[in-house]
## 1
Amino acid sequence: SYELTQPLSVSVALGQTARITCGGNNIGSKNVHWYQQKPGQAPVLVIYRDSNRPSGIPERFSGSNSGNTATLTISRAQAGDEADYYCQVWDSSTYVFGTGTKVTVL
Amino acid sequence: QVTLRESGPALVKPTQTLTLTCTFSGFSLSTSGMCVSWIRQPPGKALEWLALIDWDDDKYYSTSLKTRLTISKDTSKNQVVLTMTNMDPVDTATYYCARILGPNPGTRAFDIWGQGTMVTVSS
């Protein structure tokens, strides 16, 4: 089965840039979506189809996807960006989520 | 406004069958491209996709759980039901339903989620 690997944690200083990676075999050929989940809350879609932002998501969130790695970038990180982030793709008629990354804003 | 709400038992015993209902509003599951899916999350762990049903009544299941899962819809009631048989303590998790839309499964994202319902499996 297809696997998506994310770093367990990423730390970023307030106002700086955080990059969260999502590794998968030839993931660049797939559409990658990203979700933000704050403690005790349901996930929220922040990036769809690699690099598109739903309405209401700040421009500080951006995405890219190439080769074996997709990346979610959070620019000018704020305290409110502290959360778990998950990538997701479709493969072999199933949906697959990544292992999740905890982002800490210092 | 699109909303989804999960309902079902908070506690089930091992070997029992779990039945969860997702009641939604703001869209119709008879509209082309509309789908509803179930996802779960054990405490402190990652999201795990379970099943999906689309507007055309096509169904997709997690490979590892497909023998235990059944998803169905009642379009007139705006509900999607998930049953999971032979429950085990490892199935303890928050269960979410979510809308997912688009004609192509490969491009779809879960755009609206319910708040989730916690299910504990214990004797």
## 2
Amino acid sequence: DAGVIQSPRHEVTEMGQEVTLRCKPISGHDYLFWYRQTMMRGLELLIYFNNNVPIDDSGMPEDRFSAKMPNASFSTLKIQPSEPRDSAVYFCASSLVRGGEAFFGQGTRLTVV
Amino acid sequence: TQLLEQSPQFLSIQEGENLTVYCNSSSVFSSLQWYRQEPGEGPVLLVTVVTGGEVKKLKRLTFQFGDARKDSSLHITAAQPGDTGLYLCADNDYKLSFGAGTTVTVRA
């Protein structure tokens, strides 16, 4: 397996624009996590899914953020409208079982200007 | 909400020296994981500890889990520049929550 695949690797957008980040988890993994990483706040869990169902979205900062998992092989994180304070590296991770090893993608570096 | 505290925040040492980083929780861990993150990459799992008092060794890395399962340490013997990175502890019960991490720099 190629591991967790995220796209794009880098995204630069203007404030107010919609941004969509994409993730393909490892095949067969039942858990998918979205994180945001900044120097100030570290690695923050935004939302996680189990079997394509959102289980805990308490980390989603505002209504401007939304995440979907339409099937077992694809998830999106959308920010609309984007703001400069959303600039961060966004990671997607997947794991086979609860409490198991989490495999991370290489992240998407988002810059909102 | 469980709070994970890691210390120190930064650590810079010379190649060949030993180092220890710590992870403490406000409540009991169900299980604890240590990850290392290198610049430009996502975190990678080093070890999972489950049982209080458990000690695991991975080459030059030694992981200890406190008897009460509320704290853990990672000790690196004879550190090498390749050990440079951000070391993160995580509680992986229902969701994978991370501490702020310790940034380790090993100078050649």
